[in-house]
Structures are given as C-alpha cells and as structure tokens.
Structures
1.
Amino acid sequence: MKKEFVVERQGKMFVLYAGLLDEAHAQGLKSIKTSLLQVPTEDNRQTAICQATVETEKGVFTGIGDASPSNVAPAMTSCLIRMAETRAKARALRDAVNVGVAALEELNEDDDTPGGAHNGPAHEGITRQPGRSDIAPGNGAGPAALATPAQIRTIYLIGRDQHGLSSSQMEERCVAQYGCAPTMLSKKQASELITALSGNGK
C-alpha cells in the first residue's frame, strides 16, 4: 500500500478506500460488483445495506457494509446507499489485497471504531501522520480539538463524489488552504472545509 493512502492518529493506522482500489488494480483487479440488500426506510431506521463482490487474479472476495444516520457524518445522511456501497467495497477490497486495518470510510460517526454490518477490531481508528505535533496548525488547540474521524472521512468523500478529486488532490487543496493535510485539521477547520465543499463547489 502506498504511503499516501495511509493515515495515522493516536498510534493507529488506517487506509483510504482510494488506496485499496489502487492496490487492487496493481494486483490484477478484474471486477467489482455491488448489490443493494436493504433500502433505507423508517421501518429499518434508515439503514442501507450493500454487498460487494471483488474478483482479482487471486479469487473472489465479498464484503457487506451498512450506513445509517447514526453511523455517518451529518453531511452524508443524504448519501446512505452510496456510503453503504463504499463500505462494502472497502471490506471486500481489504480481503482481496490482504490489508488487515480498516479503511477510513468504514468508521462510525464520532468514534474510532469501524462501522457497518461487518465490524473490524474495536481498537481500529484513524490516526495522524507520524512525527507530527499533537497541536493542529494555527489553532493552538490540543489533541481533543483535532478533526473527528467522521469529519476527515467526509472531506475525502465529498471531494471525490462531488468534485472528482483524488485523495492526493484533496490533500493538496487542504494544504493550500490550511497548511496541513485533512488529518491535521482542527474540528473547526474541518467543519469549514466540509461546508465549503458541500456548498457551491468552490
């Protein structure tokens, strides 16, 4: 896995979905198929469930992912099916390329544990890049003020889905605007960036 697709916080490692897809292509990805197992409704607490099937030169791998208002960022509550599909694909891709740590996109809202129907180890969480200070640039705040895993995930997802930005391009934009990668933003900075990305596309 390329280093640009790995994020770190509180000593734990996480990968980005874009990195899993990149690695799968490098290992002979043949196809990714998804199916919607459950449509979100009031009766199921607006929970979408998807299944993904990944085929590579090594075989066929499957994964299941779910998304609901309780385990996604507020900005993504209108994209529950898409989030469930992304989580399902991330899990299938992780098995396909033999990556044991969870993907950023799998995390629950406001905690450091993977969300969805097929949770990974409870200790897995987003982490910051090694060697960085515990203080987010420009805000004088300690670790508690850093952007939440859900905020970081949302930044990458909106950048990709609404603006066609790759992970590296999203990071470049963040560095240009705030002087740091998304994983080093404060909660306030992350919120401002999410609002800007979700707005008029600027």
2.
Amino acid sequence: MSVDEGLDHNGEYSTAENVEDFRINIAEVNRRIASAAERVGREPGEIELLPVSKTVPQERIRAAVAAGCHKLGENKVQEAFRKSDEMADLDIDWAVIGHLQSNKARDVAKFASEFQALDRLKVAAALDRRLEAAGRSLDVYVQVNTSAEESKFGMPPEELLGFLRELPQFPTLKVQGLMTLAVFSSDIDRVRTCFQRLRTLRDQAQETDPELIGSGKLSMGMSGDYEVAIEEGANCVRVGQAIFGRRALPDSYYWPENG
C-alpha cells in the first residue's frame, strides 16, 4: 500500500504552487492518515504529520505555511538554517531530520525545535554543550538502522539500549522516541518489517526502563509508505513530495549518502 492519489498523469507527485494547492494536498494526506489509523483501530489524532520542505523555495514554503503548515522538516542543516533566518517573520518550528555532523551542532542549537536523527554520542555531546550555552533544550529522536543497509545512517538495533542509557548525561536533550528509514523497496512486506522492528525496539526499551525513551514515539514513514508506517504504530510521519510535489533529485540523494 502506498500513496497514489495526488499524482499527475505521469505518475509523479503534482507540484503545489499556491495556498489552495497546498490545502488540497494536505487534506488528502490527512484523509489517508485517518484511513490508515482507522484500519488498525487507532485515533488519527495520535499521528503527527510533519511536512518535509527540503529543496522547496521560500515562496512556496510561505504558501504552505498559509495553508496551515507551522512545523517543517529539513534534511540539510545549512539549508534549514538559511530558511529559518529568511522566514523568521513566520511562525515555524523547524525539525532537522537528516544526518548531523558534530561540527554543525552549533547551528542546530540556534534554531531547531527538534532533531530526529541522533545516532552518535559525539553528536549528543556537541549538541548538549551548545544548547547549554544557549540556555535551551531540544527534543530528539534516536535514529535506528532497521533495514541493515550499510548505506543508511542510524545505529545498529543491538546498540540501542546502551546508547539510550548514555543519554541522561546530556540533560538538554529531551528524548521523544525513535526514528527510522525503511528500506527503499516496492516490496511492502520488506518495508513493513522495518517499521515492525522499530516498534519492537521501542517496546523493549520501555519494558527495560521507560525513563530511557521519553514518550516512546515512533517517527517513521514518508510519502511512499506512511500508511504502512501508521498501521505499524507511527506517531510521526515525514511527508514531503505528497504535499510539496516531486523533487528534482531522488530521495536517495538525501537519504542518506549526502545527509
């Protein structure tokens, strides 16, 4: 099961150019979120839609905000930092959802409200140091590589509990839960297995020590697989192309080699 409505006659996501376009696309994604949730007896209100605005220019982001998007996800720190500065007049919370090098922690500490790709203690320490100096905290998700693909970022599942036990030493980081990227495949069973693996890891962490994982949310699912993710327990789905339209570059450019 994957998103197919909202596609143009070539089978590609249609580009939203104005406020009404965005309202239509957002309504369709929300309809599908609700439908997926109802199939498995969940409440749609349990699921956060995080629009992903990577590569989208400022004028279209402004239209998206006017259509109701007030929290946006970005992969690349420099792009996100620039946009946050250019659109400081708007009410936007910025979530960094891509791989972070420790030398970029200073920028994240300045503007982000959330970081969804924490997978190394070096990055945790750098963020904590910068956040403490700024007198603020940051919501974080720990990224796990559930597909076992060497090209993907995220920690190996077997290292998760040990990593979570180290995070309390960084008091400015407020763990919200876990994040993953499913395998890039049209085989829904393979995709579903990645999401099931993350849910199992969350459940194991909660059973071991619920304090380690905060509210235990699961951030998983993108434009092509968010309905499957919801069926498997996602609390946050990161949807870009189904809202903004097709990008010039494939997802493989952003996930994860150049994250």
